[in-house]
From TrEMBL:
InterPro entries: Aldolase_TIM, GH, Glycosyl_hydrolases_36
EC number, as in UniProt: 2.4.1.82
UniProt keywords, alphabetically: Carbohydrate metabolism, Glycosyltransferase, Transferase
Stated name of the protein: Alpha-galactosidase
GO molecular function term, any single one: galactinol-sucrose galactosyltransferase activity
Pfam families associated with the record: Raffinose_syn
Superkingdom of origin: Bacteria
Keyword Glycosyltransferase tagged: yes
Length: 711
C-alpha cells in the first residue's frame, strides 16, 4: 500500500480563471476583434484538478481539466450568443508552489510544424506556445528520503477539441486554451498535466503517460519499430530534391554497390508524384511519367531485384500535395466523398475518420500494388492552419490521423514516418503510427545549422521519445561535420539514413555504424540531454552538450561541441567543455576514440573537451557488472560505435569466459584485476594487448575463450 503522506503536493497553484468572450452583438465576422473581446472571471469550479496515485511512491501526477460554459439567452438558441474567442477562449493563471532554482527549460512551438528549447531565467521569459515547462526546486522527495532538489513539469495537452499553450507572466505562468473555431459557448477538455519527482525524466515520463492515457493513444513501447526502417537507408531529398527521377536514383545505387555499402532501404522523397508543380496540387496517385517513364512499380522492382534493396518508401503530403488536391483532376472526382474544401479554398482529405481512411486506403492501395513498403507523410501541422474557423484543433487531427494510421497499418504494417508534425494537435492524436521527425530539416549547405539541429532533436526527444521513435532526419557522409551527424543519428535510436548526392558518399563514415551484412544496431531509446544540461543552455554554460542513451545495458554518451565562438554563445575559440558524472554507483567510462577507460566513483566526474562541431563517444558500465563475467566486462567490437551490440553471447566457465561476436574485428574488454592469462580461438592462441585495464584482441569471428589466471 502506498504511503499517502509521501505524495508530494502539486507543483503549481491555481490563481485565477478567465473567459475571453466575444459579445453577442459583436460576432467574429464583424471584423472588430481585439476591442470586442471581453474578459470575464470564472469560478474555480470550472477547473478540475485530479491527482493520480498510480505511482505515488515515486512521483505525483495531476491532471487539469476545464468545464466552462457561458450563459445563454434563456433557451433562445437561434439568436446570436456570446461565445469564447477562437484564438484564446480561456486562460488559467498559475504559480509555482516552490520557486524555481535556476533557469526553466521550455519546449515551445516556434514554427507551425516544429518545436525547439529555450531557457527562461524569469517567468516573463517563458515564450508563447510553450508545450513543456521543466524546472527544479527545493523540496521533500516523494519517497520520504529527506530534503533535496525536486523536479517539476507542466505539460500542455491538446484534447478532443481544445488546445492548450503555456506562456509566462510577471510572477507565474499562464495556460491559454483555444478551440480554433468561433461560436463555442462551452469549453470542456483536458488541458494540462503536472508532475513532481526526484528525477527530471521521471517527471516528463509521468506527464506524457498520463496525457496519452487520457487521449487514448499508444506510448512508444506499444508502437513497434518498423522493420522497413531497420538497417541503413538513403533518401533522395538532399541529393535530387524535387527533380528526383528513376535514372538518377539508379546511378546512385550503382555507386553504393561499387563501394560495398549494404543499403537496406530507399525513400523516394517529394517530386515523384503526379502534380501541378506551379500550383502545388496533386493530380493523380501515380508517378510522374516524365521522371518515371515505366511507372513507380518498375523503379521499385529494379531497386529490389538488381540492387538488393529490401524496402522502398515514398513521400506523401498530408493535404495530398502542399496546396491540396486539384479539384479538376480525375482523383478529385474519383475520391469526391473523401475530400473536403477548407476555408482557404484548398481541397484536402476530409476530417472524418471514414473520409481520411478512404483517401489513404485508395492511395496506399495503389502504392502497395507498386511494391512500396512504407510512407513518409509530410506537412501535417499545416492542417490546423488550413482548417481555421471550420474545425477545432482536436477535430482537425483526430479523424485524419485515425484514418491515416489505419490505412498504413492495413497496407504497410504501420510503417509510417510522420513529418512536419510537431504541433500538439498532431502528436496527441496519432493512435498507432511509430515514427515522428523531431526537428526542422537537416541543412547540409548551411554548416552553421548544426547547433540548432542538435538542440531541436535532442531536447524535443526528451518528451517525444515517450510517445514515438524519433527521426533526427537524414545526413550527408561527405560534410564538415559528417562524423558528428553520423553519431547523432546513431543516438536517435530511430531510422538512420543518408541523402548523399552522386559521387559524394564517404564509406568510412558509415562503416562504424553497421555490420558487414547490413545489420545496424540502434540505441534502446532516443538520446536525451544529461541532467546537467537541463537547467542551463549548454551553448552558454560550458559549450558542449552530453547526450545519453544505452544499448545492451551499457550507457552510451555522445559529447557534442555546440558553442561556435560567436558572441552569441560567448566561448571564443576555446574548446567546448562538459563533464561526465557517475551517479550513485561506481562505473567504468570507456573512450571510443582513445580505447582507454577510467574508473569513476559515486559522484565523481571526468572533464571532456571538444571543439565546435566535433563529437566524442563514451561507453559506461557499472563496476559491479564485472561479477557477472568472473571479473571482466565486455566492451565489444571497437571499430563499431555501438560496440556492445556486436557481442552476441557471453558464457562464464570455471576457467574463464567464452565470447561470441557478430563479425570479425578487434574485441575489447575491461580486466581491472588482470585476470587474463591466455586468449584462444579454437586451437590458436591469440595475442592480446593491455592498455591499463583495457584488453584488446583481434578476432576472426569464431568464439573467443579468455582463460583466467586464478593464482
Amino acid at each position: 500500500m502506498n504511503n499517502k503522506s509521501s505524495i508530494p503536493t502539486c507543483p503549481v497553484e491555481v490563481r485565477s480563471l478567465s473567459a475571453h468572450v466575444r459579445p453577442a452583438d459583436n460576432p467574429a465576422w464583424s471584423g472588430e476583434r481585439l476591442s470586442a473581446i471581453q474578459e470575464r472571471s470564472l469560478t474555480v469550479e470550472s477547473l478540475q484538478v485530479v491527482a493520480s496515485d498510480e505511482h505515488a511512491d515515486s512521483h505525483g501526477v495531476w491532471s487539469f481539466g476545464i468545464d466552462a460554459a457561458l450563459a445563454g439567452y434563456d433557451g433562445e438558441r437561434f439568436q446570436q450568443e456570446a461565445s469564447f474567442d477562437a484564438d484564446c477562449g480561456l486562460t488559467i493563471e498559475l504559480g509555482a508552489v516552490r520557486a524555481p532554482q535556476g533557469s526553466m527549460l521550455c519546449l515551445y512551438q516556434h514554427k507551425e510544424w516544429w518545436m525547439r528549447p529555450c531557457w527562461a531565467e524569469s517567468y516573463r521569459q517563458i515564450p508563447q506556445r510553450t508545450q513543456l515547462l521543466l524546472w527544479r526546486s527545493s523540496g521533500r522527495y516523494p519517497d520520504g528520503c529527506g530534503e533535496g532538489y525536486m523536479w517539476n513539469a507542466a505539460l500542455a495537452v491538446c484534447g478532443q477539441s481544445l488546445r492548450a499553450d503555456i506562456s509566462g507572466t510577471e510572477n507565474g505562468f499562464r495556460v491559454s486554451v483555444c478551440s480554433n473555431v468561433p461560436g463555442h459557448t462551452a469549453m470542456t477538455d483536458m488541458v494540462l498535466v503536472c508532475a513532481s519527482a526526484s528525477e527530471p525524466y521521471a517527471c516528463i515520463e509521468a506527464c506524457v503517460k498520463q496525457g496519452a492515457q487520457m487521449q487514448g493513444i499508444m506510448l512508444r513501447d506499444q508502437r513497434p519499430f518498423p522493420r522497413q526502417c531497420e538497417g541503413l537507408g538513403w533518401c533522395t531529398w538532399d541529393s535530387l530534391g524535387q527533380e528526383v527521377n528513376e535514372s538518377d536514383i539508379l546511378l546512385k545505387m550503382d555507386e553504393f554497390r561499387r563501394q560495398g555499402i549494404p543499403l537496406s532501404w530507399v525513400l523516394i522523397d517529394d517530386g515523384w508524384s503526379q502534380v501541378d508543380r506551379e500550383r502545388k496540387l496533386l493530380q493523380g496517385w501515380h508517378a510522374d511519367r516524365e521522371r518515371f517513364p515505366e511507372g513507380l512499380g518498375h523503379t521499385v522492382r529494379i531497386l529490389k531485384q538488381r540492387y538488393g534493396v529490401k524496402y522502398v518508401g515514398v513521400w506523401q503530403a498530408y493535404q495530398g500535395y502542399w496546396n491540396g488536391v486539384d479539384p479538376a483532376s480525375g482523383i478529385a472526382m474519383e475520391a469526391k466523398g473523401f475530400l473536403q474544401r477548407m476555408p482557404n479554398g484548398c481541397m484536402v482529405p476530409g476530417g472524418e475518420p471514414q473520409q481520411s481512411f478512404g483517401w489513404w486506403h485508395a492511395w496506399d492501395g495503389y502504392l502497395r500494388g507498386a511494391g512500396v513498403d512504407f510512407v513518409k507523410v509530410d506537412s501535417q501541422s499545416s492542417m490546423s492552419v488550413m482548417s481555421r474557423s471550420l474545425e477545432s484543433y482536436g477535430a482537425t487531427a483526430t479523424g485524419r490521423h485515425t484514418g491515416l494510421d489505419a490505412a498504413v497499418a492495413m497496407h504497410f504494417h504501420g510503417a509510417l514516418i510522420n513529418c512536419m508534425g510537431m504541433a500538439p494537435e498532431d502528436y496527441w492524436h496519432r493512435p498507432s503510427s511509430p515514427i515522428v521527425r523531431t526537428s526542422d530539416d537537416f541543412l547540409p549547405r548551411d554548416v552553421s545549422s548544426l547547433t540548432e539541429h542538435v538542440m531541436q532533436n535532442v531536447y524535443v526527444s526528451a518528451m517525444m521519445r515517450e510517445l514515438y521513435h524519433c527521426d533526427w532526419d537524414m545526413f550527408w557522409t561527405e560534410h564538415p561535420h559528417a562524423r558528428t551527424h553520423a553519431l547523432l543519428r546513431m543516438m536517435s535510436a530511430g531510422p538512420l539514413y543518408c541523402s548523399d548526392a552522386l559521387g559524394h558518399t564517404c564509406p568510412d563514415e558509415l562503416r562504424p555504424l553497421l555490420a558487414q551484412d547490413g545489420f545496424l544496431p540502434r540505441c534502446d531509446a532516443a538520446g536525451v540531454p544529461d541532467v546537467s544540461d537541463l537547467i542551463d543552455d549548454p551553448r552558454r554554460h560550458q559549450g558542449a552538450l552530453i547526450i545519453n542513451s544505452s544499448v545492451a545495458s551499457v550507457g552510451v554518451h555522445a559529447v557534442i561541441g555546440l558553442a561556435d565562438g560567436s558572441q552569441e554563445h560567448g566561448h571564443g575559440s576555446e574548446p567546448c567543455l562538459a563533464a561526465i558524472r557517475a551517479q550513485d554507483e561506481a562505473l567504468w567510462l570507456y573512450s571510443w576514440d582513445s580505447r582507454a577507460a577510467v574508473r569513476l566513483g559515486p559522484g565523481e566526474q571526468m572533464p571532456v573537451a571538444v571543439d565546435y562541431g566535433e563529437a566524442s563517444l563514451y561507453l559506461s558500465v557499472a563496476q559491479k557488472d564485472a561479477s557477472r563475467y568472473g571479473g571482466i566486462i565486455p566492451i565489444g567490437v571497437v571499430e563499431k560505435y555501438l560496440s556492445p551490440a556486436f557481442v552476441t553471447h557471453v558464457v562464464r566457465t570455471e576457467q574463464g569466459v567464452c565470447v561470441e561476436l557478430r563479425e570479425p574485428g578487434t574485441f575489447a574488454y575491461l580486466d581491472p584485476s588482470q585476470l587474463t592469462s591466455r586468449v584462444t580461438q579454437g586451437n590458436t592462441d591469440r595475442t592480446f594487448e593491455r592498455n591499463d585495464v583495457v584488453v584488446t584482441v583481434e578476432s576472426d569471428g569464431s568464439p573467443l575463450f579468455i582463460d583466467f589466471n586464478r593464482q
